[in-house]
Write a structure and sequence with these properties.
The chain has 185 residues and is of the alpha+beta class. The protein has helices at 52-59, 79-87, 139-146; strands spanning 2-6, 33-34, 43-49, 67-74, 90-91, 94-95, 100-104, 125-132, 151-159, 162-163, 172-174. It is built from 3 helices and 11 strands, in the order βββαβαββββαβββ. The strands form 2 sheets. Strands 1, 2, 3, 4, 7, 8, 9, 10 and 11 form a 9-stranded mixed sheet that branches. The chain has a two-stranded antiparallel ribbon with strand order 5-6. It is globular, with a radius of gyration of 16 Å. The mean pLDDT is 90.
């Protein structure tokens, strides 16, 4: 298994498309595939494996592998927004499961993003840590918007026990799939 810190502007696939780069620019190991996805405008941890069963178990919501995100939002979260996230919010495709949500300081060892986020002088920003067990399309961005906090920057910091610790953007390391303790179906 491979842990990869996906930079902004890179697709969760090996083939580039349009303005977005592909994983082949960073990972040349044959026969590994992404287990779960991140949008091109999101950053952070991707897991890749050549084991199809393991790939399915990581990505399948039935196994409820937690995903931890650092979310820079426009605005300052109040307790009502945090409570709503913790209880689950209503999206167009139905309610989300409850999430763990808390305000955090700027994440340690945060790298500069290229291009930088848009900054409005009249709007403060804050960081949230959001832990979810689902993986709907653009879910974290939609959840933050549902509570009035548009996402400016989104970084997946962990998938289960696998983390970004020590990984610069565009870098990868091998990880032991046994660390994940992913239950067999």
């Amino acid at each position: 298994m491979i842990c990869f810190n996906k930079p902004y502007g890179v697709l969760s696939q090996f083939t580039p498309e349009g303005q977005w780069r592909g994983l082949k620019d960073f990972i040349t190991i044959p026969n590994v595939y992404v287990a779960g996805r991140l949008d091109a405008d999101s950053e952070g941890l991707l897991l890749l494996t050549g084991d199809g069963k393991l790939q399915a178990r990581i990505a399948d919501p039935r196994f409820k592998m937690e995903k931890t995100y650092w979310v820079q939002v426009e605005g300052i979260p109040d307790e009502a927004a945090l409570v709503a996230l913790r209880q689950g919010v209503q999206l167009k495709d139905g309610p989300t499961l409850p999430a763990r949500a808390r305000v955090i300081e700027t994440p340690p060892c945060l790298w500069e993003r290229t291009p930088p986020i848009r900054v409005r002088q009249t709007k403060p920003t804050a960081w949230l840590e959001l832990v979810i067990r689902e993986g709907r399309n653009r879910q974290v961005r939609r959840m933050s918007a549902a509570v009035g906090l548009p996402t400016l920057r989104l970084i997946r910091a962990a998938i289960g026990p696998y983390t970004l610790d020590g990984l610069a953007p565009g870098c990868w390391r091998e990880a032991d799939p046994q660390e994940g303790r992913i239950a067999n179906p």
